[in-house]
Write a structure and sequence with these properties.
CATH topology of the largest domain: Cyclophilin
CATH architecture of the largest domain: Beta Barrel
Number of domains: 2
Mean pLDDT: 83
CATH class of the largest domain: Mainly Beta
Strand order of the largest sheet: 3-4-6-5-7-2-1-8
Distance between the termini: 88 Å
Length: 240
């Protein structure tokens, strides 16, 4: 009788060990599956990053590839509002969609951070404030990395140079066709406008908030080169 009890007890212990063993094996399965899922997630993230990294590769722009580049860029980058921040306050600008190359150019340079640290380097009292340049080596270095190119004027849309309009000056080089210098812009401060500029320069946006800031900048003292005596730096960002 004692032997039977011992056998039964032994069998019970054996069955308990088998159940524990099976239980341990079962708990391992979800961990393995979860680990594979993490690996799959990592693979997915890697695949997602590849096209993004490809898009972010810098292209060196020139007169041959700039227009094809901005033709494609303006289709994918639809932003049309920017904010120019200065020590005098913010200037909010709505960019015209009907001037796609000039809008795309401004958005592209904004995303590249080109304007950050540049200045309003030319102020003509009761006429315009002009920005996008500076004598800093950093600004010149940014230009070299982005490229050397000009934009053709786009005056067929009929936009007038009303007060508050943002436009693009022509290049200072010999330039009978008034090709635009893509790194600079000016805002008309004159009231009611500077209409003698119509047809020669591309108006590609307008101030929707902050004309009081434009007026403050326009009142700053300048030297005989129309450069402000104190630097007026800017930060430019995209807004909704």
């Amino acid at each position: 009788m004692l032997k039977v009890k011992i056998v039964i007890l032994a069998l019970g212990i054996l069955m308990l060990n088998i159940q524990c063993s099976n239980s341990k094996k079962k708990t391992l399965k979800p961990l393995v599956k979860e680990q594979k899922t993490e690996e799959e997630k990592n693979d997915t993230l890697k695949n997602l990053k590849k096209p993004q990294e490809k898009e972010e590769k810098t292209i060196l722009l020139n007169d041959q590839n700039a227009i094809p580049f901005f033709f494609n860029y303006q289709k994918k980058n639809l932003e049309d509002k920017v904010r120019i921040s200065t020590r005098f306050g913010d200037i909010d600008i709505q960019l015209y969609k009907n001037t796609p190359y000039h809008r795309a150019n401004f958005i592209y340079l904004t995303k590249k951070g080109y304007f950050n640290g540049s200045t309003f380097h030319r102020v003509v009292p009761n006429f315009i404030i002009q920005g996008g340049n500076s004598d800093r080596a950093e600004t010149a270095d940014k230009r070299r990395k982005i490229g050397k190119y000009l934009l053709p004027p786009d005056t067929r849309k009929g936009y007038k140079h009303h007060r508050g309009v943002i436009s693009m000056p022509s290049s200072e080089i010999e330039n009978p066709h008034k090709l635009a210098s893509p790194y600079e812009f000016f805002i008309v401060q004159q009231s009611p406008g500077a209409y003698h500029l119509d047809g020669s320069y591309t108006a590609f946006g307008k101030v929707i908030k902050g004309m009081d800031v434009v007026d403050k900048i326009n009142k700053q003292k300048v030297d005989n080169r129309e450069a402000p005596l104190t630097n007026i730096h800017m930060q430019v960002s995209i807004i909704k």
